[in-house]
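User: I'll paste a sequence; please echo it back and then give the predicted structure.

Assistant: Echoing your sequence first, then the prediction.
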Amino acid sequence: MSMDIEEFRKAGYAAIDQICDYFYSLEEKPVVAQVEPGYLAKLIPQAPPQEGEKFEDIAADYQRCIVPGLTHWSHPSFFAYFPTACTFEGIIADLYTSAVSNPGFNWICSPACTELEVIVMDWAAQLFGLDAAFMNSGRAGGGCLQTTASESALIAAVAARNTFMDAHQGVRLEDLVIICTTQTHSLALKAGRVLGLAVRAIEVGPEDAYALRGSQLRKAIAEETGKGRRPFFIIATIGTTSSGAVDNLSEIREVVREHPDIWLHVDAAWAGVALSCPELRAQLLLDEVNAVAYSFCTNFHKWGLVNFDCSTLWVRDRLALTRALDVTPEFLRTKEGDAGTVTDFRNWHLALGRRFRSLKLWFVLRSFGVEGFRAHIRKGIAQNNVFVNLVEKSPYLRLAAPPSLALTVFRMVPGWTEEAKSVVEEPSVSSAADKAVTIAASGGVAESKTPNVLTRALWERLERRRGDLYLTQTLLNGVFCLRIAIGASRTQEEHVRRAFAIIEEEATAVAKELDI
């Protein structure tokens, strides 16, 4: 049976109350859902009901069946992947968005949807210090909202491919190659698969803190060209997922200038929002982004206080996007579009329809303001510094890469070897620590106690504590590491200290178990 307006009002009040209760009790919930695969099939019928059910029963089943199976990304002890910094402003905006349910593909579909997006993308560009060349109010560039950084990279690659092939007649599709690194997000390989193109991943290592150097890029371009391939799209990263590495855009800048027909896309999906803080812009190479990037992406839905999804993509030449993606059958033509007086965002992404995402970004930026947004970013960095200081005092834990903003990668080492301690604290940690322990093993200590083995043992114990905290693991050139990412809006220093206490407790247990 369909709800009427008054029934919706009543159910809406109840839903808001339940959402508030959810956040009040969030810290008491296990971080990760304590269910087994397939749990839901035992609770929900295998076929839809023949007759409509009361909404009270449906809402009750949400609490009974769904909530126990949720992993809580807003939990203050969620440190896996990159936490979501969900806010109430964004939740309310999504409620309004769902109410109007506008697909927003043409300006006329809802002028407010398009025009607000144009405006807030320029707000965000100013927040991050992006050059006027990337703004919608400028002559050539502009920005729009996408679903994720993966879609943003794919869109940029499509524009780059068409631009390159238009400029180089006779180039075959199979000649094209995307260049990235072994630390680039999976979005690079996905873009290659979707487009049917080769991908060259440059090996980066601990000697450069897992960042791409200009010399490596220059060599890769020469090698690919020597094979008859045509590099057309480079993905550089500000804040890699595994370790938070920042590719050396100062050097990449010079290489790109030698190859002006190659499109440089800068993926700053996680770290880009930190550009809001002026004191971080040199560290994050903003000047280089403004100088040579053809496109730039960051996600508000990670560290940026906006609930999922809200990915921002800016391009230096918006016509490169629309030329590649404009498909306009007669039924989509409008007099405003034909006159060129409006923006039709359907030509800026893959799908036709698009959500009214700009509303939640507008709500959040207005509610927090520039200073409030910066305060949130600085809080995450300060909390990460607390964790780093604790790791540095630990007898069993060592940094596995330089700390990056609100991300720390660490591993376990034997407390009995000063040699292992010293080498792991250096930036080139990858093989040095394991080598040191292997050397020590020749003196009577089992090789099974190398840092990789110890860290995996620690990880297995922490996996059993996922109700208390949630971390994720990674590999840095074959070295097994753990990573803690801070950023949930409800995380406080006490949660970071508690997380470290749990990690240290389990590391001590590993040390005792393996007699180190």
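The first strand starts at residue 142 and ends at 146. The chain is about 45% helix and 10% strand.
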